[in-house]
Specification:
Two copies of one chain form a homodimer. Chain A is built from 15 helices and 17 strands. The first copy, chain A, has about 400 residues and is α/β, with parallel strands linked by helices. A six-stranded mixed beta sheet of chain A has the order 10-7-13-12-14-15, with helices on both faces. In chain A, strands 9-8-11 form a three-stranded antiparallel beta sheet. In chain A, helix 1 packs parallel to helix 15, helix 4 crosses helix 5 and helix 12 runs antiparallel to helix 14. Chain A is globular and about 75 Å long. Strand 10 of chain A pairs antiparallel with strand 10 of chain B.
């Protein structure tokens, strides 16, 4: 297939580098992460304890989580959290939330040491046995968990490493990838070959921190809709194109974003996004995947995928492939104009400004499945090979 | 574990019967289905053609799809479509929709013969090349597809056999199950061992018609939330309890329901539902899984799971396990009262009437994760083993 040869010439496509992983190194890495996590918790708790021992009021300083405390640099490639902190000092008024924060940290330590995990909801219900420190509403326990997450993110520890995992389902994966997953109890590493799922796929677990990878793929194709993913998977597109397919099913979940990020980092793979051509696909799905979001900037260092590039569907594709379209709704136009005016990502990339302005001018949007107008497998036989022959032309 | 031994005594638990499947039988079954499907299409088209040859107006008679054309019998175990039909005769006014129906049937025939598939959306975009017969809106092509589905359902052919597949994502599966999936092109059967996915899982494909199974499991546990599924999967609950775990992630998708139904039928496995104790979990998730829905009764023969029984969380569990609760909202109370008054399923089962009345009286609801109050793994170590020791006590 033409796309294969030309990929090598194209700039963003990395040479295939199979990452060789041994059982021991997988286990060692997981243990190191756990040590760092427990150390973070212990250090913080000791400081509180020492202050109390000196009859002083202990405090905890959390990074401020808001758009006002965010910076974006082209080199880093994602929204970073700034240096503003809010300090919570132990007083009569704050004693309950202070205690809850410490109990939540204690729960995290137990989880790491017991090699277990809890969802946000689990943690809320666990607190029902914390007597005076129990939470009345899950929104309260969620907020405390977010604070702890932000606190430890400064030391490079994320929420999944604290063993708090999302309730939501992960995405689906198929293609040239072996996932290595050590058993929670025995440590024996399961080798999961993502070429061997038939028409099904590998469902990403809620937490992916313990995973390692082996692959000779050249890129990751992150797909918006289940329908297109199923088509590419059933026709084994990953085999002819040396790639890994990931189904995002709309805005990708935390686990899916983290999975793509880890895989992209550890195996040095570019990520190509294939989404609908509308302001939602571009600014909500793609931008969140690539640079993260403003109001959760403490997460972006772990969750965004700076190596992502935008394969399509582009506004130019609508013309070139004469795609069937739908008119842009008011909410679409507003979203596009907001992005042009306020979003540091789109403001930093003139190619994107041009594309968004183009889309607003045309006044239409097109879905990735609109390519089916030219035949159900046109996407496999024509569109993707033509695009993949020139990854240097992808939008940044 | 106590649950294992006592399962054998309990009535609904079937004896483990490993279903042995050969590559040839898998392929033969798929080919038979395809022949039946093409035969349905050809017969219908020939009848139309003959009528035209005799200079008579051809017509097509579709089953009426509405609650008024539904019957429920305890023996069959699901809502069945009745005998009312609506007839579409070819006239000047109906010529476009008549032609569209025939083109859609033609597309289905091409898909079966080319061994491919299309989503609803794909089919809509394909029609853009049908000139005068093209659809202007996807709602129109969806309606035509629903009619064709209802038409052929009378001969036991479902939409997936017509090769129209859902856009939506399937559920996740883990446990004592090998899925056999013949390759679309080569026919080589992939054996997918659902015990070998580490903390991840098998993601059900959009269409499951071609799948066969091998299993020595004793039951299928269908779980509402991703959080509980992940806990049971990470702790390999399926190993100690000889079962298959299925994550429904809310109301199960078509593919998930069909998968559970096929697996339950072909391997003679009971299905135990483990959902939140609230009118939504009981009437929307469980009831839809077990007997199907009223307004799509032509699907129920394929999609509902009459072997399903309700493990929990029951209203009685809220008291027995002293679970943390939330007050029932007005919408919950309304849903429960509607079910008691109008739903033939709940009206036919006095245990369910009692349980729903109990819930309304208590005025509260409880989530399955509320069991975490007693410890994160209480659900694994205590709740499920105790319940599974007495499947005869499950709600019907």
């Amino acid at each position: 297939m033409a796309a294969r040869k030309k990929d090598k010439a194209g700039k963003p496509a990395a040479a295939p580098k199979p990452a060789k992983v041994t059982d021991t190194s997988v286990k060692r890495k997981a243990e190191e992460l756990d040590r760092l996590t427990v150390d973070c918790i212990k250090t913080t708790a000791s400081e509180v304890h020492q202050e109390i021992g000196k009859h002083r009021k202990p405090d905890l300083a959390f990074p401020v989580r808001s758009l006002g405390n965010v910076k974006y640099s082209l080199e880093r490639g994602y929204f970073e959290i700034g240096r503003q902190k809010k300090t919570r000092t132990l007083t009569v008024n704050t004693v309950k939330s202070f205690a809850q924060t410490l109990r939540m940290m204690g729960l995290s330590k137990d989880l790491v040491e017991g090699n277990d995990f809890a969802t946000k909801r689990d943690a809320y219900y666990q607190s029902k046995n914390w007597e005076e420190a129990r939470f009345d509403e899950q929104t309260e326990s969620d907020a405390v968990m977010d604070d702890i997450e932000a606190l430890f993110s400064v030391r490079g520890v994320n929420r999944e490493q604290l063993r708090f995992i999302p309730d939501e389902h992960g995405g689906a994966v198929a293609g040239r990838l072996v996932v290595l997953d050590p058993d929670r109890e025995t440590g024996v590493v399961e080798r999961i070959d993502c070429t061997r799922f038939g028409s099904g796929a590998y469902s990403i677990p809620s937490s992916v921190e313990q995973l390692s990878f082996e692959t000779d793929a050249k890129f990751i194709l992150a797909i918006e809709t289940g329908g297109v993913f199923q088509r590419l998977q059933s026709h084994k597109f990953w085999q002819t194109s040396d790639c890994i397919l990931v189904s995002m099913a709309g805005v990708p979940t935390r686990a899916t974003r983290r999975f793509v990020r880890k895989l992209s980092d550890e195996c040095k793979l570019p990520v190509y996004a294939f989404v609908d051509c509308d302001p939602y696909g571009i600014s909500n799905i793609y931008r969140t995947l690539k640079v993260g979001s403003g109001n959760a900037a403490h997460l972006n260092q772990f969750f965004c995928v700076p190596k992502a590039r935008y394969l399509g569907v582009t506004p130019a594709d609508i013309r070139e492939y004469q795609l069937p379209t739908h008119p842009l709704l008011d909410v679409d136009v507003k979203r596009a104009k907001d992005a042009l005016k306020n979003d540091p990502f789109f403001k930093s990339h003139k190619e994107w400004r041009g594309a968004l302005e183009d889309l607003v001018r045309m006044g239409v949007r097109a879905e990735q499945q609109a390519l089916a107008k030219w035949g159900l497998n046109y996407v496999i036989e024509e569109y993707l090979p033509r695009k993949l022959a020139h990854p240097e032309k992808f939008l940044p």
